[in-house]
Amino acid sequence: MSTPRALTSRSSTWHAPAAPERRTDLTIVPGVTRAKRPRIFYAAAAVTAILGVIAAQLLVSLMVTRGAYTVQALQNTQTHVQREYQAASEALARDSSPQNLAAKAHALGMVSTSNVAYLRLSDGKVLGTPKAAKKVAANSVAQKSLVPDALLPGLDQKTPKNARAAGAAGAATTATTPFTGTLASPVTR
């Protein structure tokens, strides 16, 4: 291998760099030795570190498992609350149906009328001519319903006699047959 040469600006020749100076003030002191640590210290430190890692991993695993059980319990609670909400919504829809409102109003002694009168609250003026309504029979509320409500117990679900006699297609009744068999079990694979 060749030694690098520096190019001087005055000449175009290469020459070798100067050798570094050697220091002679450093000497080896005899009799000073390093203190050796016992090997048992290193073994104890390694075993302690391994046990610490195992303990930390076990604690993290326990926390994750506890969190999974908490999540499952909260999901079960949420499902229960959603079912209660759905049942309450269905009960509200059933109770707010026009047929049910008419039946409850009739039970309270209210009667329906075709004569409409309004009271203007700003000046207290009555708009229209109010007339007293006539009391009707209890079963006529269900007969006047255009669409019978199958979810309401206690209302007469039969078609009025005059609609049957006229042969109205929209007034046909549907008979329900109670289920007496067993349900087929699903096939799982």
What does this structure look like?
By secondary structure, this protein is mainly α. It is built from 4 helices and 4 strands; from the N terminus they run E-E-H-H-E-E-H-H. Strand 3 and strand 4 form a beta hairpin.
**How much beta, percentage-wise?**
under 5%
Q: So what's the overall shape?
A: elongated
DSSP helical segment count: 4
Rg over CA atoms: 49 Å
Mean pLDDT metric: 75
What multimeric state do the chains show?
single chain
N-to-C terminal Cα separation, in Å? 77 Å
**Biggest sheet, open or closed, and with what strands and sense?**
2 strands, antiparallel
Task: List low-confidence stretches.
Answer: 157-173
Number of strands: 4
Structural class: mainly alpha
Layout of SSEs?
Layout: E1 6-7, E2 14-15, H1 39-95, H2 98-107, E3 118-119, E4 126-127, H3 140-144, H4 161-166
Antiparallel strand pairs: 1-2, 3-4
List keywords for this structure.
single chain, 189 residues, mainly alpha, two-stranded antiparallel ribbon, two-stranded antiparallel sheet, 4 strands, 4% strand
Please provide a brief summary of the model:
The protein has 189 residues and is mainly alpha-helical.
